[in-house]
């Protein structure tokens, strides 16, 4: 059976579950494990270093014109002749959507099974792993994989209960300019880590959020994880936030509780990376209880400490 993944999260979960031998094609932004796989999906933003504002404008213009940011290598897809294609219909910016995928698949001489993975909440992402494995006749592999991850989240919850930790008032930003709140599964990650984000949109799309509303909400912990940005890329645009009126009045700023985190723990819904996100958030929200291991420690930084480190160089 040959699989083509149009979704980085699906690719990641296949590797995590040991199902990578079925993969014969991926997207340009699939995880490093798939670096040697043929790239079937490309993007007009690929290799460019646009700012948050520029990316937002490019997407808005493309959407207004009815165009997609993504394109498919039709000849490569035809040569692979996949039996199964995984895709999504959550975000037109993050990944190619099901409509574009269907258009490409319709041209194939051999029609594959098209499996859309469009989770809205954290439990949905868990079930996506089962959907992937079931499509390959390996459903039992998913249950073993998920049980291991569930054990990690249960341990975090047990620690929070044991320490009677109060919920932290949190905001997680999915974009810097314009500012987007977090949606879909991320509010559930925040809850699992001992926080609450009252500006979020659980199980729904993230939306533009006025800065004045954020200042009024006054988060105790601010997590900045723009979709597609790693820590270094996010740091390049932090001036867009720090220059805003009221930045220094935020509790998160005054108490050095502003964090920059890698996007793949939040806006790429592989359940393994989302559980890493829960572990990282728990360390940010409750550092007196949770200590990041070597892997998780690489995935986020304290903004104040990073600035001080750069100034001392």
From TrEMBL:
A Pfam family assignment: Peripla_BP_2
Source domain of life: Bacteria
Domain Fe/B12 periplasmic-binding: 2-289
PROSITE patterns: FE_B12_PBP
Protein's name in the database: ABC transporter substrate-binding protein
Species: Pedobacter vanadiisoli
């Amino acid at each position: 059976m040959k699989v083509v993944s149009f979704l980085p999260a699906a690719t990641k979960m296949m590797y995590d579950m040991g199902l990578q031998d079925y993969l014969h094609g991926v997207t340009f932004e699939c995880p490093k494990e798939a670096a040697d796989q043929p790239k079937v999906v490309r993007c007009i933003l690929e290799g460019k270093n646009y700012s948050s504002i520029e990316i937002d404008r490019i997407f808005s213009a493309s959407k207004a014109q009815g165009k997609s940011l993504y394109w498919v290598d039709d000849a490569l897809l035809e040569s692979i002749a996949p039996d199964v294609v995984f895709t999504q219909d959550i975000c037109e910016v993050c990944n190619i959507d099901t409509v574009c995928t269907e258009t490409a698949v319709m041209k194939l001489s051999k029609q594959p099974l098209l499996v859309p993975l469009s989770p809205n909440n954290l439990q949905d992402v868990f079930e996506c792993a089962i959907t992937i494995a079931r499509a390959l006749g390996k459903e039992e592999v998913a249950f073993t994989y998920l049980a291991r991850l569930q054990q990690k989240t249960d341990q975090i919850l047990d620690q929070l209960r044991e320490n009677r930790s109060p919920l932290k008032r949190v905001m997680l930003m999915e974009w810097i300019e314009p500012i987007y709140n977090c949606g879909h599964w991320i509010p559930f990650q925040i809850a699992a880590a001992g926080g609450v984000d009252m500006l979020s949109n659980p199980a729904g799309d993230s939306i533009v959020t006025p800065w004045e509303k954020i200042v009024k909400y006054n988060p105790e912990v601010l997590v900045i994880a723009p979709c597609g940005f790693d820590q270094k890329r996010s740091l390049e645009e932090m001036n867009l936030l720090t220059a805003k009126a009221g930045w220094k009045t935020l509790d998160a700023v005054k108490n050095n509780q502003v964090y920059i985190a890698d996007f793949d723990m939040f806006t790429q819904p592989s359940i393994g990376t989302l559980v890493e996100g829960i572990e990282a958030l728990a360390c940010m929200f409750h550092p007196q209880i949770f200590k990041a291991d070597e892997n998780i420690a690489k995935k986020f930084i304290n903004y104040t400490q990073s600035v001080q480190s750069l100034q001392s160089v």
